[in-house]
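Hi Q.,

Before the meeting this afternoon, I wanted you to have the pyridoxal-5'-phosphate prediction in hand. No need to reply - just skim if you have a minute. The sequence and ligand are here:
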Amino acid sequence: MSKANEREPLWQRLHRDQESRSAIQLALDYGGEYLDAAPDRSVFPDQVAIAALDAFDEPLPERSTPAVEVIGQLHELGSPATTAQGGGRYFGYVNGGLLPAALGARLLADVWDQNAALQLMSPIAAQLEAVCERWLVDLLGLPEGSAAGLVSGTSAATLCGLLAGRNALPRRLGWDVNALGLFGAPKLRAVLSEGAHITVRKSLAILGMGAAQIEIVPADDQGRIDHSRLPPLDEHTLLILQAGNVNSGAFDDFTSLCTAAQQAGAWVHVDGAFGLWARACQATAHLTAGIKRADSWSVDAHKTLNSPYDCGIILCRDREALVGALQASDSYLHFGAGRDGMLYTPDMSRRARGVELWAALKSLGRAGVDQLVAQLCRRARQFDDELRAHDFQVLNEVVFNQVLVACESPALTEQTLELLQAGGECWCGGSMWRGEPVIRISVCSWTTTPDDVRRSVAAFVDARERAAAAIA
Ligand SMILES: *Cc1c(COP(=O)(O)O)cnc(C)c1O
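Predicted structure with the ligand bound:
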């Protein structure tokens, strides 16, 4: 840095950085470069890139750094140390891709820097959230008038759904949790599948439900809750169901389970983090039959819909139950005549997630969402077919976007996964399925082509060959 620059007062430089738009331009240039390179680079960063991250481990700088240098360091050291999620051959966890319109909207919204807490803070953020709420309820075929809150992810969404239920059930029994608190309130029970996602248990813990109040129901061979083993439900019960098991992608039988819950007066929450989108696709909608009868649903736009992180959605049939559970009021808060986003989430200040959610839905339209979901499922079936043709075992019924793969022995599966991950051609995570290690494929990005699947299957075959040689 030059002497002249060092003497330049900070605010003067910030103004100059802003007026020249150098940081924005640079970020866009680097971002474009990054996207261009994504399909061909190693899907997981190499050791050199990871080791270079040590450069970030410096003491807090005493002096300021020009914006272009900050962005420059981020690109030079940061970009190579990312996983190439946008490249078409990343199949780890259940991480979505990124739609161009949603990315663009996010960038513009970041420039706007809107606070989506109140209508009065950002009319555009409030408007787009209201529109998204209406569109989502329509697209996902949920009860008319259902409320939607935009939160960080399904973890937060599930927390909100169960919170609404935790307050609504005692209220129906004559106990107002907002007024009286939980001490002395009617005891609740939570009934969930052994295949429930860990975030469901985390939510229950946060809500004050201990192990003694949680009843775990065995699951069938696909990870669906076993209805025949369900304990009797009652008006004290939170029943948690799943649209899309995180390993197998399986869907619970909502028609029979929701009917039983409704008759018993229980509250049903559905964790549909990636699977609720099945409802927006003609080819998969049958998997969600009966789901409309639940009370609340959580889903991620950042998974199957391919909008940017972080965008979870809590949907709740009973608007008052959700808003009442997340109550807030103070004299300085001026709620608008329309929709104030903070009433539907635990947060107050929030970035305007509705902008990119709106952009994703607007750019795809109903037909586009249908095609996106159908394509992810087709690629998953392609994996199923081609891996079986190469003598891999596929352990689940591939009903959605998840494929669970094993080799002849657990040791060979583990070793194959290790070599597959190190190879950089594609990236899959590992998991345990019915007591056995598996390679877990999650097809989540619109960018994945049939050729990406072929290349990945070739990488599986190659990794298994090398693994077998290493074990022998
Ligand atoms: C991803 C996922 C979650 C957690 O969602 P986050 O957005 O990571 O908070 C919960 N349940 C299922 C089935 C998931 O796939």
